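#onboarding

Welcome to the new folks! Below is a worked example of what a typical request in this channel looks like: someone posts a single protein sequence, and someone else replies with the predicted structure as tokens. Don't worry about understanding the tokens yet, we'll cover that in week two.

Example request:
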Amino acid sequence: MTLKPATTTEARSMEASVGPAKVEGGRGRWLAVGVLMIASFMDLMDVTIVNVALPAMQADLGASSAQVQWVVAAYLLPFSVLLITSGRLGDIAGRRRMFLIGVAAFTALSLVAGLAPSADVLVVARALQGAAAALMIPQVLSIIQAMFAPRERAAVFGLYGAVTGLAAVVGPMLGGWLVTADLWGTGWRSIFLINLPVGVLLLVATTRWVRESRSPNPLRLDLPGVVLSAGAVFLVVFPLVQGRELEWPSWIIAMLVASVPAFAIFALFERQLERRGGSPVVPMSLFTKRGFSSGVLVTTAFNAGVGGFFLVLALYVQGALGFTAWEAGLVLVPFSVGAMVASGVAVPLAARAGRLVILAGGALIAGAMLLAREEATEAGTALGTFGLLVPMVLAGLGLGLVVVPLVDVTLAGVGVRDAGAASGVLNTTRQLGQAFGVAMVGVVFFGVLDDGPATVALAQRAFADSVWLAVALFGLSFVASFLLPPRAVDPEAVEAGPTNAPVLARRPG
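Example response:
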């Protein structure tokens, strides 16, 4: 790989902060990508693997229903709130450094969670684990941006999309197997303890193959921006996570309403700081880039549809039809296969057709959800493990066609200087979208269930009605996709920017 050299001033800055800039291509660079993908897989799987083990946790620890819910929520809240800050910290202090801290903390806290003697200890461990994941995950995309020229990134983003689809399937299946197998009498604890060897391997491999990188320009941490961004995100995520369980009291609604002026104040402060030449935690100039601003909008709406649909699908097949966790995981296997196949073909397709690939993927996944609704309605209680084979394959193909080129379009115009900030914003909008979709689609699903005695027929109607809202969210992302640039920005133009020169340090030793 050949990269445009930095200016003389930037080169001196590199030497002073991280050592001589040196880029090595070939096998070592792809080994580094493998390390980053494993870390992403571990985080994504850790979210889904917990869901199938909740009943076993509750029985073993004597946990209340509220404590069980917080095992999930305690992870999501700090994870969502800290993503933006952690992304910027990587730009400032070094992306590999923040990644290593996140992996080390995540591994240690997995041990704490696996040995938790009570539900309260488990909840605290999960909260800290979510914070550790927030340090780790934003660095993945920003390190990729530093290692690869813009023209090369699409292939790596394709791999990232495939890993995302695979983790969504492997998590529930592996969790169901581990809990059932009860390895060495560990029961549900094994879902956390399995992270220990993986975490140690990641720490060793990261120090060996992943190079340090940071912004080529000196940056300072924007502490007021950190507080404002964390507060604004919290005002959204907490009500969306807890609102349904608390039956949407007035103070929860007030938090959601307050999030609007909170984000406005944050944006105004960041814009003023950037105009004064400061280092905002989220540079508002990012949103002047058509690809980034429209990509964030599409990402939010699309993930809302995905999160909402798969929530009600899991509730329906396990709660109403009596599927085991293993059987529910098998339902998602065709989805994962479709996503991996589409992730591979989306890169060359997007190079030729641009946003048309994203539009086609959005239409395909919306149609697949409607087909799943039709299959579930027609089959009723006779719906089997593979009854949703066709719609799940189509949905996976649609997801792959959207996610891979969308990441490329969204980040293509972002220089390495702001790679961490942009990655943090993109990951945060994903989380906000999923939380919003789960909350809104869940309201429809449980609202129908409250209409009468619990029966399969009522659950079937709840599933059918809630799928319409998920499809509407996909429709919103489809319409927003027309705002995307026809193609990602010219990679050569991005390379030519003086702030886009990757800063890569020598590998230790």
